Amino acid sequence: MALSQRPASRFFAAFYRWNQHAQLSRPCASVYRYTLRHTRSRNAICAPRYYNATRLLQQDNTASTQKTVQEQYAPIDLSESESQQEQLKNSVRGLMRDVPSSVAVLTVASIDPKTKKHVPMGVAVSSLSTVSLDPPTISFNIKQPSKTLDAIRATDGLFRVHFPTASRSGAKLVDLFSRGNHPDAYDLRSKQLKLHQPKNKIQYSVPSSLAPQVLGGYVRAAMECEVTHEFPVADHVILVAKVNDLEQKTAKGPAIMYINGEYRIPEGKSVYVAENAQPSAASADIASVREYPLFPGEKERRHYMEQIKAIIRSTPAYYKDPSRETYETININLPYPAADFGIDLELLTAECRQEMGLGSPLRPGAEDKQVLSEFYGVLTPSMRDRIVDRAKKLVALDERYLSQPYRSFLFDLGVNPNSKDFLPSDIMKHLRAANLARRFKQDRKQVIGETEDIIKVEQIEHRLREHLRSMKYEDARREPFEVAMEAIGERKGAAMHFKKARARLLTQSHPTLFDASAIDITGEVTEEELRVVLCRLINYLNVKSQIHFRQNIERNPRELLRRVRVDPTITGMDVELLVGKIKHLYLSTRTYQDFLFALKEALRPWFIWNVSRDDLEERVKNFVQSTPLRAIAWSAKSRLAAMGLHWDATVTLPSNNSSKQVTKQSLLKGVILDTLVTKELKNYYGSGTEEENQAVAKYLKETYSFDVTPAASDSQSSADEMQQVMATTLETSPGEGDRSLEIMRLPGKSKRIEHGDNKKQGRKEAWSTDSFH
Description:
GO terms for molecular function: FMN binding; riboflavin reductase (NADPH) activity. The protein is α+β, with helices and mostly antiparallel strands and 773 residues long.
């Protein structure tokens, strides 16, 4: 059936014509107050002029209402003029999609009628522009019906305008306010943005909208505005507003632009693709990768590649005429960077085109490369050794490998160029040791040239490291490498060789921040160490406080490691993937309690929440015997994590209460863990190295004033003496119920000791003499 013959199309066409001439426009409630206040000002904005339907149009409308039912539902064809109008509409739409437009985010004060709480209501508009500067006046349009428009009217025309920066974060801000206004959208904005909700009007001379304020470096500036006029046009309303106040948020710089579904910087480079511009089915599929385990493996890697292929094949803009900008756009809109999984997007796109019969145009030299790199992400020591061995064989076969572009050389070695913390010097120093390369000599002339081979990139590496060494740590950590390249006299593009190696360069340029006094986990982490890293990171994020968690989760993942005494260049785990996973859990859950539950489920394969007495003793014994120095130095939470126990874990013990058979005691509270660790340290003394024995003796002496080697003539055994000094030294925390310290019963006789605050409060504690033998 033709479009003109569809009853629904005929109805909406008739309704549109009627609505054009029958609806009455209404100014904003604040228009009249504004006009009254400015009637004597020659610069005042004039009231809108309203137009009524002409007599001919009114007659046409009247005649149309007198048609019979048969006539109303009879199939009619669009007239030639109506067909031309439809074509014109589509042409204008297609043209305007390619015309760059500014983007702004409007927020307005609004209270949810159900919860009686403020919600971050707002909308992103691409029609905002200035009307006049005397007084400063802006205009924009909103499609009806609109909750934002209703809220603006309800607040007497007061609202706030935010101008996002030309960055990915700025584009994300716009995208979050392009999802409508509903509970899910509010929740997502609250989680991903730093919002401030004003409570009272501070300056009465300047009207305050009390609208939500978006804070952060991705807001270029913000305006407090007040609507003065409304102009209804078709299904939109044009609003004119005066600017009451302007706040400069960041240093001068361009704001973001929107064109054909993409957010761009003024230079034209895409920084983000709106989610609603992507195929919905493909987006849903790619989102499933967030269900991967905390540390994905080869199975997840190949699954991720297939999901990216599905995205490319379902998006014509990705496969029709791919370019470097296309690959950047694809990567920007993936939940994880493709390079983190060793996936080359250029080769993958070419593979998709070939499967679709479109050919696979690749740059010269890329035809023989693999989509999946053998070495990618965080490279372990064994991986680095294999890479070096391959480099030696290639260079021994033909030294011209050292003269080809550095990234091409890495591909020949099976290394993804975006591998983390891998530097040219990691290869060159071994080649020199094998007399396969000339001795390193800093030479400025070698750096200048069109081709950046490994020798030249190594020169840049040396100069970059020296540049970072001359700066304070925080400045070196934050400075963009493009800026650093200019500072050392290199082209900006050379920064791409080092973006994934910043943590490595910082450990070399500021070694005192990463020595043994500041870091206690380095190198390739064991499973025990990995659990400790997990424990420290999650506790540092402070997940029990939503406010603090939101602040901490935005920190650089590598910097998070340093702050929890872990070397940022550790191998055996990818902290960026881990933090990305935690972020996903937070953003994809409806409530914060749901997030905490989801996080607990994600940690379940790594930790145990309850343990029996015998199992606990065995875990403590193994932990102390394998790493006695860490048993001394680590905190209680790190000790528990190393033993595979969650920091909130409990131990099941016999109960003193006759009404209960067993009781669960927190291992983080009380002295159970300290008691068992100290017992095992005493037993270990004498069987370890000299360093370990000295550390154990010092720990027991300084912590409990206990000499692990008492004179043989002492009438009291070392076990009895230690039992007493521990009983008088160990601090007890408020317990559950009516006891500050849970009684731990082990086989053998028990000796009751009253001491300290427990004696004052009439509380007693039982210790097993067998615990120290």
